[in-house]
Automatic annotation (TrEMBL), chains A, B, C, D:
InterPro entries on file: Aldolase_TIM, Class-I_DAHP_synthase, DAHP1/KDSA, DAHP_syn_2
Top-level taxon: Archaea
Any Pfam family: DAHP_synth_1
Domain DAHP synthetase I/KDSA: 77-321
Descriptive protein name: 3-deoxy-7-phosphoheptulonate synthase
Source organism per UniProt: Cuniculiplasma divulgatum
Keywords: Transferase
Keyword Isomerase assigned: no
Keyword Transferase: yes
Protein's GO biological process: aromatic amino acid family biosynthetic process
GO molecular function, one term: aldehyde-lyase activity
């Protein structure tokens, strides 16, 4: 249950009323407002809450019932959710400083807003390339400083956070950790923006509840990144539901990103999936781009080359103008 | 195995060669060419086919290996697949002549190209409205004659065909009959255009093989209509995979339609799903539109009203100009 | 809405009351009782039904609310649902009289109760063996007469019914026709027992509603045959949910069959799937058995040989004694 | 690539040969043997490995190609995989010492072999009961000391390990962390037995690769616990595929556990799912049992009461005797 004082002046009264009640509660500050969270979930007993100066909401902090207007998340000099399509591009995995510098410079020239790159890689088998780790993070920092592009990179365990802090601008939580609640709670304690992917076997409700783990810690800088779900179809890698974005829009104020690279599984389909995502209203795209995709150490089949990315970015920018 | 003579002049030689071989074969005429079909599927034994004047193809008639250029399907005065977005609109079920006439006139005014309407309705339970049957077909004919819009309506059993013949311009095979092979074979013997939906639990490969049942009878007038598939997500009715259209495009020359109404399940999402489908390259849209959706006898929640359709058609037409 | 007179004597009064009301209804005879069916589905308006001598049930005829005790379905000399495990065995497809006779005699010796065999085969592609058709039906009849085993065979269209009538003891509706409502309604008009498989993309509710199409015509001889559903798992052909049987048991009085051959997709797994189905309470098993599986014209990988079937039948019979 | 010296005496020669080659490798000790692991995955280049005294295997350590005989995992005085059905029972969440002591004593009396109980709970929303944490672990230790039952409890992050070490006998990795590779790698460095659940959206191959993360660190004490997967069926909570156990058996030497409580979602189905799992060959069952299920702080609907568990354990023990 979320309890929102009608105005800041009422906050102490609400606090007192909750103190007087028998219920345990927690106060957080989110999007510039003070909110009270109780673990009291039953709506039947709302009347027992001795509060007249507040709204009582039984939906999540992610919900438009709590915050009507769409949220912007700021990452460096980039604002996600403000109307302009934000495009993060870069390699699946950071492989070397030269590689990353070349990719960073080229995607910037072509109009990318952010640099993506994996330093810690969650690979299905332990024998696949696991990423450069801390070295990769340092390369991201260097290329970011040089190009001016803010960065996004995936975290795999909360103990890695110290490497990200101050070096990476936005932390990505991948599909496999989308219900790693220990990690999500930890990130809720930090202010750093989070790009939260959906679990490949999760519903939208479960995904929004994963976001709630971050928001309820007081960190409202969450962007929901849709990367498709598991299905029986075997001609693509994951199924990318065009219904996901309108459902998210309706149920949540959080900005939305789409990752067309993973569901495509094959570079020939990436542009079409990106177009569909923009047409259905995404605020951001995250695209895998590699200087030499066929030789990539991971996801070789789905990464775009520079020519493919250049073509894609022109088309999606033009489309965004139309769909607004 | 499909055997295609290199040119018409060679056809008798190919025929003779196949006669001389021990293999059983069948000759059909498709897209203006003569083709030979054998039930011989193993590619290992191609060398035993005594043919030098033909191509031997172990993929389906739906494949771009058999026909490289995209196919157009003509329905009345409408050409599906020719570059212009074709929009079929109308009620889920025909409910009365007045209702259908009003809808037909209004969607025509707004720019629809075809009229859709169900006379025989495959409803999950036997106690739901089952459609007006033959009467509904006759109303479709009347409204078509009046408005000039060609019609599409669903068939549920091959024995109903006599009612469609001469009255309806395009036969729809619904999701629940997408692997009703007796029906598909029957339609393969007729020339009437078929709008073939995917089975809700079928892969794209299975769906293309359903089309093959029609094509291999000599009827090449098949449009593939994607209506989403089953998934674990419960916030929409079916999952609409944005990967489906690019996969179909790559693997088949047949034109593609998208039905955003059924996967949406809720009218608020229909426009967004339609936009995504157009952005990913659909040739046609089939949209449920009702004069009074809340009172509709079926699919009440997902049918658009006239205002909703008017808004949708403007947006998708504008989008089509951009995506080409 | 199902309206069941409290006793036979009250039936005319209930009939009169319904006549007096404005509602349309239909009387059927099912399981030796007279029932009235209305298309009136809203439970809110029950009070408007002017009936005091009847139960008004808003669930299906398949439901235990309509019939509390489990139903037995009699096929020839076999009773399905009576406590004894009924086993139907035989080839995926009838290939020749010799083949079928050999299989029929052998599976009978080993203890099978019924003979299964496909004459009309719903194959994913039109170029796969489509079955022997009417000839296959006649072979089934001949082997049944010789061995005394009642038969079950799949129908693909209602127009084929004439070939089954008098020749086959139980009609199978396959997964691909599980929502072919024209066929189901037709079979509801006949008394012949039906083995109704679930659609590969259907929920249990949808499947029970497919049974309702048959029951509501007055044919109560329906056995629900679970054959697995579509999923993302690729190491078997379909996913066989052990929850399906207890859910069916709870929600319906109809007897339950399990088909372990199709979900297994591979003969090595068939016995284990059969054991699981018996342990979860199935009344019947349908097993594909072939005299020479590796050379079978269809489903070669999943058919058991005689040795495999002999081993399976001993194990499942022994298990059935324990689970009761 | 796994390289296994033909006998211990050859191990130094294999080591030298690998040193001479340009390839990076790692030596581990697993199941009493020395193995070499290279990140070299292509089987094409096996000839370049200068080894004649070893087997080169391109499958995982989980595979029967690496270890033919089934593995036993010892947890306290219990041996999992040795033929006797091991049953772990206890509450979803530890709620108090009294509750846990009562449950521990009662399930022991009824024949349970191990005590399960969650101290750290991965709940879909942050407002649900999150478990007693370290206190819950201490209660598990106390009840285990008193009853003599070894314990299994879920870990949610590698930083919690210190609380488990010495207090809990077997660490459970839940569905939501089944691809938390940082955690899996960490557990591979420890010797403690791991009960590894499948991710709700993962294939069996992916799950086995998760086990590989643990095995490749040198910890061979992994039990695979199947808890069902996501599907479109809504009458149970997860779909429990009876094919999963035979597939695991065929592909891996690791022992198998089944969790019927989570897929059932409803206590009425738990026994049937447990029976199916035993009939399909599980080595172990993990069952949620509560002293007062309707008042449970989590998973109230699916936990068994003592009477239900008493009935279940008798039936599955009897069944196990038959199926062997």
């Amino acid at each position: 249950m979320i309890i929102i004082p009608n105005n800041e002046a009422n906050e102490p009264f609400v606090n007192d009323a909750l103190m007087d009640s028998s219920m345990s509660f927690r106060k957080i500050s989110l999007y510039g407002r003070s909110l009270f969270i109780t673990n009291f979930s039953s709506t039947e007993n709302i009347e027992y809450i001795p509060i007249k100066d507040a709204m009582v909401i039984s939906d999540g902090l992610y919900s438009r019932k709590v915050k009507k207007d769409s949220t912007n998340v700021t990452v460096g000099n980039v604002k996600i959710g403000s109307g302009k399509l934000v495009i993060a591009a870069g390699p699946c995995a950071v492989e070397s400083e030269e590689q990353l510098m070349e990719i960073g410079e080229r995607v910037k020239e072509m109009g990318a807003d952010m640099l993506r790159g994996g330093a810690f890689k969650p690979r299905t088998t332990p024998y696949s390339f696991q990423g450069l780790g801390v070295k990769g993070i340092n390369m991201m920092k260097k290329v970011s400083d040089y190009t001016g592009l803010p960065t996004v990179s995936e975290i795999m365990d909360l103990s890695y956070y110290k490497h990200f802090d101050g070096n990476i601008d936005m932390i990505q939580v991948g599909s496999r950790n989308s219900q790693n609640f220990a990690l999500l709670k930890f990130l809720g304690q930090k202010g750093m923006p989070v790009l939260l992917k959906n679990g490949m076997g999760n519903t939208i409700s479960e995904w929004l509840n994963s976001a709630e783990y971050i928001l309820s810690g007081g960190n409202g800088n969450v962007v929901m990144c849709y990367r498709g779900v598991r299905s029986f179809e075997d001609s693509t890698r994951f199924m990318m539901d065009s219904g996901a974005i309108p459902v998210l829009r309706e149920r949540s104020h959080l900005p939305v990103c789409a990752d067309p690279s993973h569901p495509a599984g094959k570079r020939e389909y990436v542009e079409t999936l990106a177009m569909a995502a923009v047409a259905s209203g995404t605020d951001m795209l995250e695209i895998e781009v590699h200087n030499n995709p066929d030789e990539a150490l991971s996801d070789a089949k789905q990464q775009l080359d520079f020519m493919g990315f250049s073509k894609l970015i022109k088309k999606v920018r033009k489309l965004k103008e139309i769909v607004g």
